[in-house]
Amino acid sequence: MLRRSSFILALCVVAILKTTTTLARTAPEFELPVIGQSTTLKLSDLKGKVVYVDFWASWCPPCVVSIPALEDIRTQFLGQGFEVVAINLDLSEREATHFLKSRPVSYPVLFDINKITPVLYGVEGMPTAFLIDRAGRVRSTHAGFKKSDSEKLMGLIQELLNEGVR
């Protein structure tokens, strides 16, 4: 019984440490090509904005649900210092381009051919998103996506927009 309690306690501590180490840490820098353009985008280009970095793939059902929701959220906060950046993790950029033809978005979609960025961020499944404050710190992470997540996400975004830069 004592071993089982110790094991459960250890799991709880690991979960707490994992959560606290991913929050309020500096978001890893990236520079990736923008799909459909001959430009790249760096996270540091968006310093001073609240940024929602979304890792997704075209074959991921919750990712498909998140795309129109993120478009709506971006529109809601347009001109207020908020940006959505999607990082596609399909096997080829062609798959992502084909997918986006039928579901166009106004926010930048990047392609990580080497799949290094999800490792830097500690992505374990898709979709996984990171809400980054104006100072470039990861303030929230979210795995999965349901339509009902939009309201909570908008509240978090508004809080960070209200904070300004610290």
TrEMBL record:
Coiled coil segments of this chain: none
Record's keyword terms, sorted: Signal
Signal peptide range: 1-24
Residues spanning the membrane: none
Pfam families per UniProt: Redoxin
InterPro entries for the chain: Redoxin, Thioredoxin-like_sf, Thioredoxin_domain, Thioredoxin_ResA/DsbE_sf
Domain Thioredoxin: residue ranges: 21-162
GO function terms (MF aspect): oxidoreductase activity
Keyword Signal among record annotations: yes
Keyword field contains RNA-binding: no
SUPFAM superfamilies membership: Thioredoxin-like
CDD domains in the cross-refs: TlpA_like_family (cd02966)
Record's protein name: Thioredoxin domain-containing protein
Species of the source: Ketobacter alkanivorans
